[in-house]
Structure formats: C-alpha cells, structure tokens
Amino acid sequence: MPLMISRRTTWVWLLYLAFNAPLASQSIVTFVSPTNQSRFSKALGMELSIRLDASVSNPGPGTTYVNFFDDLVFIGSGSSQNGWSMIWSNVGFGPHTLMAGVGGMPSSNPVNIFVNAEGVAFVNEEAVWKYLDGGLDPDPTWFAPGADLRTWPSGRAQFGFGEQDELTVVNFFNMSDGSIHPAYYFRHAFHVTNAAAHSNLVVRLLRDDGAIVYLNGQELFRGNMPSGAVSNKTYALTGAVPENEFIDHWVNPAALLEGTNHLAVEIHNQGAHSEDISFDLRLIADLPIPPPRVTVRRTGSSLVLSWPKLYLGYRLQAAQQLGIGDWQTVTNVFSGSSDFRSTNSFTSTAKFFRLTL
Fold first, then answer.
1. Which of 16-20, 150-154, 243-247, 307-311 comes out lowest in average pLDDT?
2. 156 burial level (CB within 10 Å; 0-12, 13-18, 19+)
3. How far apart, in whole angstroms, are the C-alpha atoms of residue 180 and residue 79?
4. pLDDT at 73 over 90
C-alpha cells in the first residue's frame, strides 16, 4: 500500500525542520573584553582606542561577522577570521554600554565601561612631525626653535622601519656600503595656553633603540645613549628594552613656554646591521604623578637603595622599628646620572626605610 502523506503532515515536518535548523538568530554572542565596570583614562586632546572582543556559540553556516554597539548605536564589526574582535577608535569621555550581536540588533550581555578625563595632551601619538633621515647630518642647531626646517619632509608617527607597524617608513639603507644609517631626527611644534598653570608634565616615549629629547632647545633627557656630544654617526649603547612600549619620563613643566613650543627628538640605532628602529611620542600635562618605587639590591656587604632622579624633593628616612614615629633622615644620599642612591652597611638589627616628601 503506498504511503500517503497529507498536506497537514508536510507542514508538521516543515515546522520541525524550521525549529531545529542552525539559524544565525540562534547564535549565542558573549561580550568578552573589556569586562564589565572597566575604567579607562585619556587626556583632553588625546585619542583613545579600545579593543573589543566577543565569542560566538553555534555560529551557523552564514555567521561570519559580529556587530558591536555602543549605547545601541552600531560602531563596527569583527569577523570570524580575526577572532570576533575590532579596534574601537575615538572613544569619547563618560559612560558607555557595550553589546554585540549577529545581525542588526545586539543580543549579548551588556558591558558598562567609563572613560575618565585625566590630564591635557599637548602632543598625541601618531602626530605629524618634520623629520630628517637618509644618514644626513643636521645643522648643529637643528633642535633649537629657530632652526630652518624648510627642506625637511613631514610624516605621521609611528616612524621607523623593519616592524611593519610604521605609518612613515624612514630612509634607513646606506647604498654606499649596505649598512644601516645610525641617526634620525624629528621636530614638532605645539601650542600652549596659560603655560604657568600646568603641572606634572610627562613625556611618554616609544623609542628603539636610543633617544635624546629636547624641548625649546634644551635637552630634557636621554635614554640608552652615551653621555656628551653625539652626531649622526653615533650608535645607541644597546638594543632597546622594552621595544614598542611608551615609557613615562616625568619632566619639569617650567620648560613649557607660553604660545608655540618646539619638541625635538633624535633616534639612534644600535648598530650598522640592526634591522629596525621605532619612534612615537605623547606629551601630557596635569596628570597625577604615581609615587616613586624604591629599588633595593645587595652589593657585597652593602644594601643599595635607589629611586628615579625624576622624583625631586623626596627624602629617604630610616627607623629601627615601625609604629613609634622615630624616623630619621638618611644623609648619605647621592645623585647619580639617572637616580638617587643610598648605600648602607648590613647590621645585626633590623632597619626600615621609606621615602617621604
């Protein structure tokens, strides 16, 4: 007897298939990063970018993108090829509620973050700088405010070569002998209003390998470079450690001038066959200064305590016991090239140290 399938039976089977098909709407999207109640800080005038990450369970055959939303407004997509992630640029101040979803509407768990306003950025990362490369020898006053830069090209940081993250690749190859040019020079002008009111000035420098930084014609600091005079033939002392990280250098805000200011930076490679350099810089004022960290190390029979020279005005004190208020100022503190240092002999009794203003 032939099998008879009624129209009603056909509809039942269609409904069963519809409810059990792996449709995109059945995908479960979870917002992974940043986590709920995360807080970020950025200075006025500085851009902030945050990486957003999501995960997808049961993505279905047509699910290749996850959409991200800020307060229910679409801000971008992340594909399955890059792990359902994206970089959210130009993030604004204040609270944000982030969600993700497959399709036109968010469906993930909500994540609340907050962006604090902290400090004032005079120079942001990826700024436009004048630069001199190709092994050329700059004018001896190239870092002074009145230097002639008319022949210098302009480019956007990050500068460098060899790491594929540069926005401006510098001319690094010496055609005459196949070596790498040692030195590269950068200039940037910025404007300051009410300069005397600004405090806590920090240079956040990304450099590979060595650097010397000037502000308004005066050297602020140098890192991984020999002391004394240098030239376009001078190499850095060693390779940069760490590479591709912004390192804070707290400097005297009195170096700021009312009106136009001039930053100058020279970057030096570590050797004739080193395969990369990098440079970028942020200059931010009015940030709270983190407390200094005291480094303690043993040298023979002595205990050496040191802290960065950028922290002026701090006093080292010592006490035999804690809690009795008997702190005495340590007088054998000497100023080194990059730090303050005190060398103390080991004794049979315990001793406690602290830094205080």
1. 16-20
2. middle
3. 39
4. yes
Report the CATH number that the domain containing residue 218 is assigned in CATH. Answer: 2.60.120.260
165-177: b (≥16 Cβ within 10 Å) or e = ebebebbbeeeee
Whether residue 148 is found in the same domain as residue 266:
yes
Structural tokens at position 168: 């401006």
Same structural domain, 52 and 181: no
Q: Tell whether 339 and 208 lie within a shared domain.
A: no
pLDDT, tens digit (0-9, with 9 covering 90-100), for 76-111: 999 988 889 999 999 999 999 999 999 888 999 999
Among 91, 117, 143, the domain boundary falls at: 117
Percentage, residues of the chain above pLDDT 90 = 60
Domains contained in the chain, number: 3
Q: How many residues does the chain have?
A: 357
Cα–Cα distance measured from residue 125 to residue 158, given in angstroms and rounded to the nearest whole number: 8
pTM: 0.67
Quick one: 108 and 87 in the same domain? yes
Cα(121)–Cα(55) distance, rounded to whole angstroms? 35
- Whether residue 140 sits in one domain with residue 280: yes
- Cα–Cα dist 115/42, whole Å: 7
Q: Print the domain residue range for 107.
A: 7-117
Q: Which residue has the tokens 């600091």?
A: 221
Average predicted confidence (pLDDT) for the chain: 87
